[in-house]
Fold this sequence. Notes:
By secondary structure, the protein is an alpha+beta fold. It has a single domain (3-200), classed as 3-Layer(aba) Sandwich (Glutaredoxin). The protein has five helices and nine strands. The protein has helices at 3-25, 78-92, 114-121, 137-146, 187-200, and strands at residues 47-50, 55-57, 65-71, 100-106, 131-134, 151-154, 161-164, 168-171, 177-180. It has a seven-stranded mixed beta sheet. Strands 6-7 form a two-stranded antiparallel sheet. Strand 6 and strand 7 form a beta hairpin. Helix 2 (78-92) crosses helix 5. The chain is globular. 34% of the residues are buried.
Amino acid sequence: MGRFRIVFIAACLVFAGLVGAFVLTRPPGAAATTGPTGNAAIGGPFQLVDQNGRAVDQRILHGKWSAVFFGYTYCPDACPTTLQELAAVQDQLGPKAKEFQVVFVSVDPGRDTPAKLKDYLSTHGFPTGVTGLTGTAEQVARAAKAYRVYYARHGDGPDYLMDHSVATYLMDPDGRFVAVLAPGETPQAVAAQIVKEMQSRS
Length: 202
């Protein structure tokens, strides 16, 4: 891995930590940076297409706790690692796993067709039942903006890379942002974080 990507990924992890700290310590009445529920203003309406070619919107998050992660199928490091970690978290949830889903949103609509997403997300070791989402460049940009996700193309030619934020967002069954899943923690610790949030809202 090149020095540039190491520095970038480290910066994204710091960003994720800062977002999590903000959620825990934000002052009352911080209306400019919080949504109507009091949570950080992360998430919102989107129109995308899933890996089966079905048009979907933000209602895909309703009814389950969701781990939402933005990445792309050609990602050499952070994306497959995150998906493998989320699969381990899913295993650690035990019976609670039926209340949990993973949603992977591509930031590379030029290459990530529904068929490409479907093939990629069927990789052994990735979460069971993970939903992949893509769309037009404009649709992806709107979804990324709603989730405060940074992404940018890096390099030329067909083998370009995409720099992107690496935070994984936990959303509640109403599609509202709850927390950033703690980066760098064990699957057991992340599963415990999710269960704690589930129980606090039961």
